[in-house]
TrEMBL record:
Pfam families documented for this protein: NTPase_1
Keywords for the protein's UniProt record, in alphabetical order: ATP-binding, Hydrolase, Nucleotide-binding
Domain AAA+ ATPase as annotated: residue spans: 1-161
The protein's name in its UniProt record: Nucleoside-triphosphatase
Stretches of the chain forming a coiled coil according to its record: none
Phylogenetic lineage: Bacteria, Bacillati, Actinomycetota, Actinomycetes, Kitasatosporales
Organism domain of life: Bacteria
InterPro entries, per database record: AAA+_ATPase (IPR003593), Nuc-triphosphatase_THEP1 (IPR004948), P-loop_NTPase (IPR027417)
Gene3D superfamilies, per the entry: P-loop containing nucleotide triphosphate hydrolases
Database matches in SMART domains: AAA (SM00382)
Length: 176
């Protein structure tokens, strides 16, 4: 049975750091997916950049982007989800090769504005592929349904466990 792990955490608790460290520890896995990180300017957060595991980067959201959609102060460029985030997820679920692992950071309000992304995530969770995804702690019908799935392990990321989680998860995912 494939391993599906959701890493839930409050904003800024360290979810992206956990999945980046995890990816660096996964020597036997072919990791496909993306992470999102904040862009800071003069100490203030001004946007978010999306980076694929293959090294492609683009600004997903920025205070200077007009939107729509807008999430808080940020205009979101949904084209970035289509161009960068989706192809890897769709390819991985279409052909769930042995050793492949999907990494998604994160299932958050900005990313979930894309209906195509939601559909790609649904495919990943329906297919027999291992997946690790970070997820916001907000209540939301799409992510609430994923969290309720009996085949999903929901792990809450806290300041107390964020340093040990990458190693624990790597051990779980490498010994297969
Ligand atoms: N294990 C850690 N030890 C020390 N600092 C950390 C650790 N993990 C994260 N941080 C710091 O906390 C901040 C937020 O980390 P990170 O971006 O990983 O959190 P996040 O939960 O993904 O945030 P967001 O909700 O904005 O996506 C960063 O400045 C990061 O350097």
């Amino acid at each position: 049975m494939p391993t599906k792990i959701l890493l839930e955490g409050r904003p800024g608790v360290g979810k992206t750091t956990v999945v980046r460290r995890l990816a660096a520890l996964l020597h036997t896995r072919d990791v496909v997916g993306f992470t999102t990180d904040e862009i800071r300017q003069g100490g203030a957060r001004v946007g978010f950049v999306l980076e694929t595991t293959t090294g492609h980067r683009a600004v997903l959201a920025h205070v200077d982007f007009p939107g729509a959609p807008k999430v808080g102060r940020y205009g979101v460029d949904l084209g970035v989800m289509d161009r960068l985030a989706l192809p890897g997820l769709l390819a991985a679920s279409a052909e769930p090769l042995p050793g492949r692992l999907v990494l998604i950071d994160e299932l958050g309000r900005m990313e979930l504005y894309s209906a195509a992304f939601r559909e790609a995530v649904r495919c990943v969770f329906e297919t027999g592929i291992d997946a690790v995804s970070t997820v916001h702690a907000h209540s939301d019908p799409f992510t609430d349904a994923l969290k309720r799935r009996t085949d999903v392990e929901l792990v809450v990321v806290t300041r107390a466990n964020r340093d040990t989680l990458p190693g624990k998860l790597a051990a779980q995912l490498e010994h297969r």
